[in-house]
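Internal ticket #5521
Category: modeling
Description: The requester needs a full-assembly model to guide mutagenesis choices. All entity lines are attached below as received. Residue total reported by intake: 620.
Assigned to: D.W.
Attached entities:
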Amino acid sequence: MSVRTLPLLFLNLGGEMLYILDQRLRAQNIPGDKARKVLNDIISTMFNRKFMEELFKPQELYSKKALRTVYERLAHASIMKLNQASMDKLYDLMTMAFKYQVLLCPRPKDVLLVTFNHLDTIKGFIQDSPTILQQVDETFRQLTEIYGGLSAGEFQLIRQTLLIFFQDLHIRVSMFLKDKVQNNNGHFVLPVSGPVPWGTEVPGLIRMFNNKGEEVKRIEFKHGGNYVPAPKEGSFELYGDRVLKLGTNMYSVNRPVETRMSGSSKNLASRTQESIAPNPLAKEELNFLARLMGGMEIKKPSGPEPGFRLNLFTTDEEEEQAALTRPEELSYEVINIQATQDQQRSKELAQIMGEFEIMEQPRLSTSKGDDLLAMMDEL
Amino acid sequence: GGGLEGPCEPGVRRADLGAVHWCVLPFRVLLVLTSHRGIQMYESNGNTMVYWHALDSGDASPVQAVFARGIAASGHFISVGTWSGRVLVFDIPVKGPNIVLSEELAGHQTPITDIATEPAQGQDCVADMVTADDSGLLCVWRSGPEFTLLTRIPGFGVPCPSVKLWQGIIAAGYGNGQVHLYEATTGNLHVQINAHARAICALDLAPEVGKLLSAGEDTFVHIWKLSRSPESGYIEVSPLP
């Protein structure tokens, strides 16, 4: 598994999250200045230098659970609040969108172009804030430095690592279903037409050579697809035509986006249950989370700016209904971290944990030990 | 490592890029598994582990993935590729767990993707193993108590995820969707097929009939008939509908 995958996963999922939030803020008619503040706050938290430093360290991907906790925190980095059901839906949409983009990347290396597409659009959201723009540009440079020199083989490994992360996720998204890029069983449709990847020839030709390397025979055959040559290569520069459309904002038209929970549980039940045997990585995950959180400078809502609640659904009733009917196997079992009085915890960690909101269904069991791992076992 | 008791971690669930391969040797069949942790060999009942080799990650930088990939049997040897480009050659006894790492082949600088073998074709054609890597480089070997590197076929910037060897013909599938056929003795390219619109996932070969199958990430599967020109002896191919 590639240990260079996390930055790509995080930045692209983060980009999708911002696209969706931007669309919902407009759909819910949130005043422009509030909407801008929310996006600015989230983006500046996301691209915080310390945060990025942690992110870019070579490491394994962490679980969907751990990652979701980071995004939940990120989504609440400003004056906006989301209920569980809306946060669940947001995460579903984010993950399915990026899964789609990874699957459809013509070349494994194109996942970098997808990332640049996300960053380009993010820069559009924060045009009036030069400091945040600088942070994003800095991340661009880091991406180029780390990924610019990777071989095709290393990108193939990154691609496989990402696809394993997304394996068995088949949540149906109405926009994908309507556009016929997703089937009713939640599987994506792989197109067999269009331009071939840059560096690939259009299939259909066989060339035969003699011992001197001279071509002696040529045969054409029917490939079955309907491919055309690639027009040009996307740009990997700070500014440039990426050519690839994957990773650009597909929500820019005001389309209500619904997710439909896949009714049959037979596909999901076997995979979403993570092993309940003690996982030596669990401790590492929590440490990683704690370090990431440490890099997030969360601004508490204060002063005259009152907070507001964003709804990912069209009505409050719909949101309530979604919370009640969400299939068991798709629950994210959000990590419930409680403040402890353990003196050995670092000050920073204690401060972070103190700021965490207790999640909707708190499982308070103070008779259990202080150990974070023990608390995880209760879930 | 060796012996019957390799480290087992039943509780840890990690998504792993691994491979499984039945190695058919003259006197026994072994099941070989590779993972990021190492190489395990089982008796053909799938139950008795006879050998465990932990991967040496000593030279790896923190950013390198450590794994084994590519498994093939030739004679009484089993060869397994690794992340560093080294190919580990294990000498397998007729029975029992006394398996020995006999050689580490150096020929590749990038992770091994696949290994192909076939029984030696007689006196003229001595190549019986081909190894492929992430850079697209192919190495052609003759097996034995000491393996000999016969030829190198350079890559061209894309990985070679899959390679097959049949009657002195090397079939290689590449990340750019092409299938190449090379003469194993000379390393010369004789056929180049623009076969797929995405990376080739796998090749498979039916040795009795000389049919090659290619599967690509473009969702297509193609079948090719391999042959030699009666006049020149050069490798030829024809697509099968």
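Resolution: model delivered.
Comment from assignee: The longest helix of chain A spans residues 6-27.
Ticket closed.
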